[in-house]
Amino acid sequence: MLNTRQVNDLAIFGGSPAFQEKLHVGRPNIGNRDRLQERINDVLDRRWLSNNGLYVQQLEQRLSEFTGAKHCIAMCNATVALEIVNRALGLTGEVIVPSFTFIATAHALQWQEITPVFCDVDPHTHNIDPRQVERLITPRTTGIIGVHVWGRPCDVEALADIAQRHNLKLAFDAAHALGCSYKGRMIGNFGEAEVFSFHATKFLNTFEGGAVATNNDELADKIRLMKNFGFGSGYDNVVYIGTNGKMNEVSAAMGVTGLESIADFIGINYRNYKQYKAELENLRGVKLINYEETEKNNYQYVILEIDEQEAGISRNEIVQILHGENIMARRYFYPGCHQMEPYHSYFPNANLLLPETEKLTQKVMSLPTGTAVTEEDVSQICNIIRLCVKESAEIKTLIQRQESNA
Ligand code: T4K
């Protein structure tokens, strides 16, 4: 590995990349491989591959123990889980959601002809701003979906208060938030239901997967029916409209195995987060988002906000430089759901109501962390980011020269 120190060493200006192999955001955490392989062999030996098998049941039970939620229902992915929750809650008309989220939060509504009404975020928390929610409520509004962005919980109490006063359903996209807590209580216990993602890139992964957590027995029963085509008890008995949201056994075995290593995953993420924080401290125009240490966090996302005025270099330019070095930083979430289709065509002026989201989507970037990232990697990444800021004027000139020569 080359220790890039000078501007001319940067790969975008002709130097060798700092990393020979791409260093990704969202490199999957893998638990104990031997245990996983034993479990997969067991699945194969027993020839029970899906449909509420042993490992799905184990995973659901262990997730319930881990979160304290009465019901955890394993699903094939979080997007389908969100669709099922939206349907099971009877959402129709309009539902208020943040635009600063992954597109699946909005699509899970629109897929069922429910209009996502985009709400601005609080620039400090990056989460849906309850002060903005109330003014978006119309006679067609049936619910609010909050998103615990980066695992940092929404202002759950304020949202619950609004939902109660306006007789709206409240649920959460908790795709990022397994292992996180709000006021000492684990995520999974708020609103009518919360949805976790176990996609490969998530803190706990099942290759693809997700789960719905709820403390509502009736809702849990309905969701279980809906994820299995609406089949009731016994064979040949469909009692409800449903879809196929089931998790398979190999995925569940991965989840059970990963859960056994969850403390290690958190420990490594925490170590990386602390190191990034220490190494980027007091760097002008660069702010690393903070996790509340009195709460439980999974520290899965290392997020920077770049203030171009102060740093002298934009988020996009830093990302361009990092990509040259094979550090595949991501612009999560860019450009905001309201700027993507079909929403941009439906609401071309939505940006006027979303000033904080617009600003955030220009500033935010996500850095590699997780078990695939070493302390040396973090040091190297921080060296390059520091170089970007310290030599911003020279770098900008060189980039501009490159662009005018292109
Ligand atoms: N709600 C929220 C708030 C979400 O963030 C998400 C998903 C959902 C709902 C929906 O959950 P699921 O239906 O997916 O369960 C990725 C993920 O595909 C997506 O799950 C995730 N959020 C989103 C934030 O990130 P992309 O389009 O950025 O994926 P991709 O292929 O670029 O991969 C991300 C990074 O991970 C890359 O740097 C490469 C690396 N990677 C990826 C995979 C799949 C690996 O190193 N190994 C791998 O196996 O969406």
Supply Rg: 22 Å
> Could you state the order of secondary-structure elements as H and E?
EHHEHEHEHEHEEEEEHHHEEHHEHHEHH
Q: What form results from the Cα inertia axes?
A: globular
The residue ranges in which pLDDT falls below 50 over 5 or more consecutive positions are none
- Tell me the fraction of residues in β-strands, as a range: 5-15%
Structural class: alpha/beta
Provide the helix percentage: 25-40%
Strand order of the largest sheet: 2-10-9-6-5-3-4
Can you walk through the features of this model?
39% of the residues lie in helices and 14% in strands. The two termini are 29 Å apart. The chain has 406 residues and is an alpha/beta fold. Helix 2 runs parallel beside helix 8 (249-260) and helix 3 (78-88) crosses helix 4. The protein contains 15 helices and 14 strands. A 7-stranded mixed sheet has the order 2-10-9-6-5-3-4, sandwiched between helices. The longest helix has 19 residues, at 262-280. The chain has helices spanning 33-46, 54-67, 78-88, 103-110, 130-133, 156-165, 217-226, 249-260, 262-280, 308-311, 315-324, 343-346, 355-363, 375-390, 392-405; strands spanning 23-24, 71-75, 94-98, 115-119, 141-147, 169-173, 181-182, 185-186, 194-197, 210-214, 286-288, 302-306, 327-328, 364-367. Ligand T4K is lined by residues 24-28, 77-79, 101-102, 104-105, 147, 173, 175-176, 197, 199-201, 210, 328, 332.
Question: Topology, please?
Answer:
Elements: E1 23-24, H1 33-46, H2 54-67, E2 71-75, H3 78-88, E3 94-98, H4 103-110, E4 115-119, H5 130-133, E5 141-147, H6 156-165, E6 169-173, E7 181-182, E8 185-186, E9 194-197, E10 210-214, H7 217-226, H8 249-260, H9 262-280, E11 286-288, E12 302-306, H10 308-311, H11 315-324, E13 327-328, H12 343-346, H13 355-363, E14 364-367, H14 375-390, H15 392-405
Parallel strand pairs: 1-13, 3-4, 3-5, 5-6, 6-9
Antiparallel strand pairs: 2-10, 7-8, 9-10, 11-12, 12-14
